[in-house]
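Thread amino acids onto this structure.
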């Protein structure tokens, strides 16, 4: 017969939970993201007249919104 000793109070059982430092890092990362989103909502758009590539307005272009083709050489 094989006899196995019961784990004593000093032995560590295998845990599947991540270490506390990982939880702290994830919490700080989430807090930083939430804070950045809150500041972005409070400040508003950085350049209100700025459009992404491929977006064209319905109205006539103003002088500040003229497209600039820098790669053509003309």
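Threaded sequence (74 positions):
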């Amino acid at each position: 017969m094989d006899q196995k000793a019961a784990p004593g109070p000093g032995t560590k059982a295998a845990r599947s939970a991540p270490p506390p430092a990982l939880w702290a890092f994830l919490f700080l990362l989430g807090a930083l993201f939430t804070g950045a989103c809150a500041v972005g909502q409070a400040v508003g758009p950085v350049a209100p007249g700025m459009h992404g590539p491929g977006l064209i307005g319905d109205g006539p272009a103003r002088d500040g919104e003229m497209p600039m083709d820098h790669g053509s050489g003309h």
